[in-house]
Structure formats: C-alpha cells, structure tokens
Amino acid sequence: MFPTSPFQHGFQKVDSGGTWSVWAPRAQNAELVLIDHARREIVPMTAHPHGWFQCQMGEVKQGQQYFYRLNQDRELPDPASRWQPKGVFGPSAVCCSGEFTWTDNEWRGSPFRELVIYELHIGTLTPEGTFAAAITRLDDLKELGINCIELMPVSQFSGSRNWGYDGVFPCAVQNTYGSPADLQRFVDTCHAKGISVLLDVVFNHLGPEGNYFSQFGPYFTEKYRTPWGPAWNYDGPESDHVRSYVLDAVRYWLHEFHLDGLRLDAVHGIYDFNAIHILSEIQQVANEEIATARRHIHMVAESDLNDVRLIDQPECGGYGLVAQWSDDFHHSVHALLTGENHGYYADFGCPQQLVKAIRQAFVYDGCHSPCRKRRHGAPTGGHSGDRFVVSIQNHDQVGNRAIGDRLGQQLNPDQLRLAAALMLLSGNVPLLFMGEEYGERAPFPFFCSFADKQLIEAVRKGRRAEFADFNWPDSIPDPQAEATMQSAVLSWDWSKESWQSELRYWYQDLIRARRLLKPLHDHLLIDARWYSPDQLAPLPKEVREDRLYKQGDDSDPAESPREGVLELTRSCRLTNEWLRAVFNFSVRPALIPEASESLPGVELFPLISSMSRRYGGSRPDVSQRAGESSHAIRALRAYEVLVFTTGESQKSWHQQRA
Question: Annotated catalytic residue: which of 31, 119, 272, 302?
C-alpha cells in the first residue's frame, strides 16, 4: 500500500555508525558537511536513482552536527532532521532516540471512548516553557481526572516563541522546549501516571521561515494552495517520495516516542486525489504499530468539512481514522451562551442546533450554511458519539480570536459550569483547553518570533486586517512581542474557596461521573430536548418567594430566543440505568419540565447540581440526599444544571465519594 522509496529519510543509526539518506532530485550532487566546532569535514554522497543521495560512516556520535551541501553551494539543514539545537537556520544534529531507557513496557493505553483530553501548549503551560517543567504539573492533571494529554505541535519553528503551527521540521523537537530525550521522558512519566499522550502534527503546510525543502525537491505543489501557503505534493509528479517522507514521520513519532496517537491538523488542507489517500496510509502505519506494540493508538483528524469519510472504514470508502473533531458543538454552545453572531457564528445561535449537535454531532449535515452561502457537510451515518471530539474551548477558538480572550472573559461562573456540563455529559469525547477547568484568565493570543523584518510586518498587518471589521484592531496584541507570549502563561491559581477552585471541583466531579456512571459509558442512546419558556409551566408562588431561587435573579429582562431549558437523557442498555440532566439557559428560574417520553417511567434521584455550595452556589448538596425522589426539586436556578440518575448510579456515586 505504501509508496516505495529505496531509503528511509534522514539519519539512521547502524551499530556504532549510521547512514544519511536525502531525497534531493533538484540537485546534481550532494555532500554531507560534518561540523566539529570550527572544523568542517566534507563527505561526498553517492547518487542513487530517483534523486536519492546517501553516505555511510562507521562511527557517529550522538549530537553530531551536520549540513547537506547541494551542488557545492549553500549549506542546508536536513529536511528529515530529528534535532535542530541551534534553531531552523543552524545545522541538524544526530539524534539516537532509540537509546532512551523506557519504563512503560506494560503500558497499553486506553480505548478512545474513555479519554478525557487536555490540550496544552508546552511553551505557555509553565513559566519555564519546557517538557521538564510540564512534568511538574502532571499530578494536578491526574487529580483533575485527566487521562489524556494532547500536545500542541512541538516541531521546530523559527525563533523561541510560536503558538505551534509554523513548524518547519516535522520530526525535530523544538529546541527551546528541551531535547528529544526530554520529550521521551515526558511521555514515559505520563504513562507511569496512567495518562495517554497525543501529539498534534501538521501535514498540510510548513511555516514560512527556515523552510528550505523546495531547494531539495518538489515537496510542495503550486497546484493547490492552503490558507497558510503551498500544499504538500501528495499526488503530483514525484509525490511517492513526499508521501514516504510523511509516513516516515508518522512511524518516527509513534515508535520512537511511544505516543498514543496523533491529532492531524486541518486535514481539509491536505489535497490528495490518489486512489489511496495519504490519510488511509497514515492510519495503516498506526495499525502496524498497534500490531507490534500491542497498545491503543488513536489517529484523530481535525476537519471543517463535516465529512465522516474520515472515520468510515476503508471497505465503506473511508480512511479508517479513529475519530474527528466536531466544531459544530463548540459553535452551538458558544453562540447560544455569548450571543456572538459574527463570522462563522452567524450560522449558529438557535437552541435546536445545540440539540442537533448533541444528538448527531454535525449541525450542518448537508443543509444550507448562511455563512458559506451553500450547503455544507453530510450526515454522520450512524457513527456513535465517541467518534467525535468536542470542546467548549480549544487553541483554535481562543487563539484565533483577535485578543485571544477565553470563555471566562465572556461568561460568568454559573454559565461556565453549564457549558462544562454540556461537554462532559455529552456522548462525545471531551477536550479541555489548558486552564479552562479553573477559569484561567490569561489569554491565548497568536504569537511568533520570526527573524525576517518583512515577514514580521506582514504578519502584523495580516492580523490587523483579519479583524478590521470587528472594531478592535487597535487592541490586537503584537504577535512578535515577547510580552504577547508571556501574557499567555498559565497562572495555575485556584486558591481555596475562590470561584476558580469551585469551578475546578465541578470539572473534577463531572469527569468522575464520566468514569463512574454507566449511562455515560453508552455512546448510542442519547437524546436531547429543548423547552422554550412558553413550553414551561409558570413558577408557582412558593418558588417565586423562595430565597434559593431569588438569589442571582437580579433582573427581569425580556425573554430571549436563546432562553429555555435543555433536557439531556442517556442510558446504559446492559443495566437499564438512566441519567437525566436539565440545563437552564436563562437569567431567571424555571420549573423542571416533565420528563420526556425518552425516559421510560424510571424513578430518578438527584445526583449533582451546579449550584451546590461545593461549586459556589447556595443549594445544599443534592448528592447527599440518597433515596430522595427527583420530584422534591421542582425548579432550576438561573443557569443551573441538575443531574438525576437511577438508584444504582446514585449508589455508585455515593460509594465512590465515601
């Protein structure tokens, strides 16, 4: 199935020596330049068919620096470099990643449906911005209940600061984050703590600075253009060797770093009209590693096409990936709670769209998109919810905002708890963006550290132009300024009895519920209903006069089309256990609606309320009222979430908390 190339790309260790192989069909000859301080040794490379050059050496040390010199001209780093200790303009270095001593021999990972993913950026996770410093935060994530980390790209980029998507060496670990061994140590430590690690990789474009690939060969094509520059040459002349390069990179990350999977960035920017798509071949590489290592490996695609061919099986014409991101869930929640309606949010804001996102993942499944002015997407084809990753914040939806402001700058803590519950009680695989669990206030704006002055100014102008219609270009942070990156460093502050610590308890308990409650393990039987205010019974006098419900209801504005109550029901077919969650999308109290027909007359008991004192509210802890019928609680406070379960689930909850 794979494209055939005579050699693997880059340096391959053989005993105490090694072999360098480079695909450079645009060169008449090639030389290896070995660097030892000021001394340079020139080693001729042997030409092979199809533009390959190769040389061997009997003794090669870890860290040996080198360039390639093509046509006896400029010295260039290796396109398949595994290590750029002096940055994108410096020499490549030999990295013997197989020499790391792993301790995770018994590690098998987790099924994808069980993951709670935490997306993080190494450079801003800690003040140090290194893999070593990130290890010191793993216990906090473990305590929260996180069992999977998704690293934003760590491929070598220009300078010391970048949000990650301008990498130019797909296999080289960013030198300012640490060495390849430091990344291996990070993964090994995660596995020791029961945490899987996914890596975000970019196979649709390369960054603009330090990219010398075109001097070697047709790695890119002008036949297609991505929003970020030329597209990879996956289907043009000589593309077999480009495909083999990318597949080598996939093998390298999975095998040498024991990663539990890859998140494939913006696959809608991958253009491939071969009969066998490059994504199918990437999945096949993962399948080979699964068979060899006997562990779970997950290949996840990000796409804005709403196309389930990504996750359909090959026999059905699909690419066979494990899962894909679904932005429709995020957009539905965001537009409904914030009221934003610019850009792609113009397509969202209707409560029924959130209902559809919960039930079917895609809101736009072949229907007309006003923003695109055409039909968009296709039906999900019966795929279960655990094939879709959803979020209420992620690097794109924060970093691509003009000032990188987070959801906590737009919503109050009550609304944040409601949004978190929508995500963590959904039938999808949830993804948290670093810091959201305690309402981190640090922004995550776009930032970079390029060297070329013209490029720097072009980026600045591009950012201002992108947001010119939103009346805030003067406040857009300078992406090149070090202060912009420093502003994004997490505070890790959830001091006791603060609203941040209460929000974190809420996330912690919801994640615990995903682990404990069997209705949340079944990703097929999921229903959602929306009740507008005119479908709800009026509040009786005793509720209107109850101080519990008056608190927080500080105004009586006109009802909004976005106000109402959402009912979410889930069940476990094997045990006949049920869960019902009701969400009040209103600034005023609302009666809990009668259970819909999706609940077959089972008796439900209160389990958890977002307005309990543990989370910053004034409602007594409903989870302590074991055996009390759900009918004892009649109304919802403003933006309250109440969860009810059948007796067995409530019993499991109490036993675990005890």
Answer: 302
